[in-house]
Automatic annotation (TrEMBL):
Keyword terms, alphabetized: Lipid degradation, Lipid metabolism
SUPFAM superfamilies: FabD/lysophospholipase-like (SSF52151)
Family assignment from sequence similarity: Belongs to the patatin family.
Residues of the PNPLA domain: 1-45
Originating species: Quercus suber (Cork oak)
Motif segment (DGA/G): 32-34
Molecular function in Gene Ontology: monoacylglycerol lipase activity; phospholipase activity
Protein name: Patatin-like protein 5
Amino acid sequence: MYRHLSSPTFFPAHYFSNQDGHGRVRDFNLVDGGVAANNPTLIAISEVTKQIINKNPDLLPIKPMAYDQLLVISIGTGSNTSEQKYNSKTASKWGVISWLYDDGDSPLIDCYSDSSKDMVDYHNCVVFQALHSENNYLRIDINTLHGNLSSVDVSTKENLGNLVKLGEQLLENPVTRLNLDTGLYEPVENGGTNEAALKRFAKSLSDEKKLRDSKSRSKKGTN
């Protein structure tokens, strides 16, 4: 299973310092970001919201919580959670050791990493549906990875090629959305494919860019 939470064992901690224009030095001691945000989608939305609060001139003057004005594409890294290898009957007998290590896996890490990732998607689905803007939120992921495809450190030419094929397959898959009652992903009726949805998002972004450029030229012309 691909686990962001274990990434510090693959990517070593890194230190650097940065000096601002006033000579103040800030130190950074960093580990893999998945430790804090296994699904960074909510952070991205928060950063945009912060720019709106700060009245960034590059953004249209909208309300900070106007999620219906946002286009969000969230792409997962894949997992093999469909395997459903844990259950409460088995877990009820585990002690500390079994929670940390069970048949080559770490149930505790799996639970923390998967739950933090899934809760972000659950939150976004609820908010966008509440605002009748569910078509503005696109989540693309797969939970049926097996073998080398689910590994974080197999970078052979063959495996990378298989990952490319998998990505192309995901483009052809239907758009899915989280069922808030069952927690399962279901195809969206008349939602088309992921590829068609991405093209729709790209057109919306292109139209927005043209509109902003047009307004910018108009402002320059009146100055």
